[in-house]
Amino acid sequence: MTQTHFIYNCRALSCNRQKRRHEKDNAPDRSIRRSASSNELPVPSREARKNCREGLTIAMPNESKMRAMPPASPELSRRAAIVGLGETDYGDDYRAARAKPEGYVSPTPESLAAIAFERALDDSGLARSDIDGLAVSYLYGGPTPRETAQLLGLKPRHCMEVMGIMAGPLPQVCAAIAAGQCDTMAVVYAVATRSIGRKFGGQGRGDEGGAPASYYYYHPWGFSSQGAHWAMTWQHYRHRFGRSEEDLGEVAMQLRRNAMLHPQAVMQAPMSITDYLGSRFIVKPLRLLDMCLVNDGAICLIVTRADKAHDMEKTPVAIAGWGKSQVRADKLDALVRHQLREHFQESGAQALGMAGLSLADIGHFEAYDAASMHLVNHIEGHGFAEPGTALDDFRAGDFARDGRLPVNMAGGMLSGSYMHGWNHIAEIVRQLRHEAGPRQVAGLAASMFSLAETDQVHPLILTRGV
């Protein structure tokens, strides 16, 4: 696709969205609206998109409904594999956004998605015509799957919208491929989080798109972000196990050391315990360096049938297992007092059982580190450390590259890039291909990813080869 073609498509999509916003203001409330021109594709209303993000279902011609995550069935294990990976330049883009040099133009979800897709396509060695499926995830708004296909120059026979964060997209894609809806799917995620000025905490419901966050109902008491959950969890943990701020600082420092080995990690400067303790409180007792980044970026994964993956130039990464466990009652008790341990254990057993592996088979762990304390929740919850001991293990180097379980080797979301868990999958792909350079875990064959929100856990198991 030429640069001129790309710019034209982005402008056209932007104009179409402006026109649809005007139409929405003057149209009756219904789940699917047809645009003014009968030749244009039907467009979901804002209410329909909101429902989609809440997990309800809508449909468009030639597009699948938003689906719940498929069950952790061994029949779906290793039926599909990741054969292409593309990422934007997180570090370069972050520095440019801060410096705003002359002529700087903020990225859009469309521009970021196009870069990631082209890089993934090149990485896979496939032709554009080989891509017959498309899944999109624009967490804070973006074009429809069909509009994205037009932007990328694709003619897929199957399109779908997947869950925004990495809490179900790959199982959804595997199920679609196993059902024969397509053979090879481009899975595109893009966010312009920094460019749109997205705030995490302090705001009301407003018109930010999507459903109100699970903590929205605590807002009158100042409990307006996930950060408040992690802060309360750390406060309880430190008193229960007699931990200090210096102990928690070991997590942030280890992830920074990992990030320094990745050329496109957002944060590259060394971090000392003095730096950590000198950073300001964001939601006490958690500091700035305990919290995830805010940056723009996109990731594209090319996923194909396992039998087709055998013929690829690069080592395929099989999607071997997944699981899910959700808190049904007493959310704060489950999160703060018990660190979601029951739910980590339940969902982890599902994923490992589906993959036919044990916890001892996992040689590398990537986890959703929205805050430093939340990474501790993941590690202890899945059983990689006993309750109350993970911070000692960080200090001992157990979770470094050459330790007993390397963790978040690209710096995670604290120092690498905040891509809602998609960046962790990208690192797993590089690790299992043995392409991670100075970050590489020697002899790696199986990796585990874990995403936990405040009330649910979603692990994934990925393995080298098919």
Which properties best describe this structure?
466 residues, 2 domains, 16% strand, two-stranded antiparallel ribbon, 37% helix, ten-stranded mixed beta sheet, Peroxisomal Thiolase, Chain A, domain 1, alpha+beta
Note the topology.
Layout: H1 3-25, E1 32-33, E2 43-44, H2 46-54, E3 80-87, H3 90-99, H4 109-124, E4 133-137, H5 145-152, E5 158-161, H6 169-178, E6 184-192, H7 226-241, H8 245-259, H9 273-278, E7 281-283, E8 286-287, E9 296-305, H10 306-309, E10 317-322, E11 325-326, H11 331-337, H12 341-355, E12 364-367, H13 372-381, H14 390-396, H15 412-416, H16 422-433, E13 446-452, E14 456-464
Parallel strand pairs: 4-5, 4-6, 12-13
Antiparallel strand pairs: 1-2, 3-9, 3-10, 6-9, 7-8, 10-14, 11-14, 13-14
Helix pairs in contact: 1-5, 7-11, 8-13, 8-14, 12-13
Notes on the structure:
- A hairpin with a 2-residue loop joins strand 7 and strand 8 (286-287).
- Helix 8 (245-259) crosses helix 13 (372-381), helix 8 crosses helix 14 (390-396) and helix 12 crosses helix 13.
- The chain has 466 residues and is of the alpha+beta class.
- Helix content is 37%, strand content 16%.
- It has 16 helices and 14 strands.
- The radius of gyration is 21 Å and the shape is globular.
- It has 2 domains: 1-16 and 71-198 and 294-314, Peroxisomal Thiolase, Chain A, domain 1, CATH 3.40.47; 227-292 and 315-464, Thiolase/Chalcone synthase (Peroxisomal Thiolase, Chain A, domain 1), CATH 3.40.47.
- Strands 3, 4, 5, 6, 9, 10, 11, 12, 13 and 14 form a 10-stranded mixed sheet that branches. Strands 1-2 form a two-stranded antiparallel ribbon.
